[in-house]
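---------- Forwarded message ----------

FYI, see the Adenine DNA glycosylase record below. Original note from H. follows.
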Amino acid sequence: MDFSKRLTHWYLQNKRDLPWRNTHEPYHIWLSEIMLQQTRIEQGLPYYYKFTEAFPRVFDLADASTDEVLKLWQGLGYYSRARNLHETAKYVANELDGKFPESYKGLIKLKGVGDYTASAIASICYNEPVAVVDGNVYRVLSRIFGIDTPINSTKGIKEFKALAMELLDREDPATFNQALMEFGALHCKPQNPACEVCPFNDKCIALKEHKVKELPVKLKKAKVKKRYFNYLVFDLENNKTVLEQRKGKGIWNGLYQFPLVESERPIGEDELRSLDAFKKELGKEDFSVELFNREPVVHKLSHQHLYTCFWLVNSSGISKEAIKLEEVLDYPVPVLIENFLNEYLPEEYK
């Protein structure tokens, strides 16, 4: 089987017209690859356009503030990608005079760039013969070649990378890599792949052995943790409220949120008022508390589910620095907060 020829033939007939496929400029390729990690193209494309419009060059991205970058990234998730993106832009602009490394070995040293991203940039921009392996590639190769080694195991990662390198068209690695990823995204889908009209259906072991739904194999993730968030939405004098920036290595580092009181389980107003964290936020101020959402908002992340209540706190004033209500939307916030604001804020502030 001439795997590369079959794949390339399919690709040239079926590929999507995407903006980063019309350039070999490493800044734009890097930007698209970082954005599309764990993200569908349909979701990432509007962000790509926003970033390239706001920051047409790596120097423009490097000169932006962290808050500007996070605000533009808002809603795309996995915010460590945005922070690494910004750090790498500053490094390339300031230390490398705006020029990205021109090899896999150089690219993989950049912050936020792993094997997949380095392989993609090196092959697409510099025609270096290195194979990409992402979720789409794992699925295609595991099915066609009947490989049941778990794709998220050390052995699996090495095995699939070696196979992809063996199959790689070394004369045109850019087209081959993009074709393999596109084939997984459009044709060999997770659910309902188009096996009847597949160019590999005469060779596909998964199809022959009725294992299409069973492959690829993935080791089960750790148990999802439940957390209970209670956000305090202050309603202060002169239409002001309070936002705080999240710090540390946890979720949403660098984003802004309302003061947070985390509890061990769902709680009511009386129990909320009894918590030390709540008392610390309010001090001795006179206030009233009202629950905004009757049922907790469930926000699902990869390893944890957040059960969230928004408590409206009417107070004459607190010691924390307050901001005008109409300025809240200028801050980068998690999508959980953004959705609440869209429901809570008066129309004239949106």
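H. also flagged this: The chain has two domains: 3-214, 225-349.
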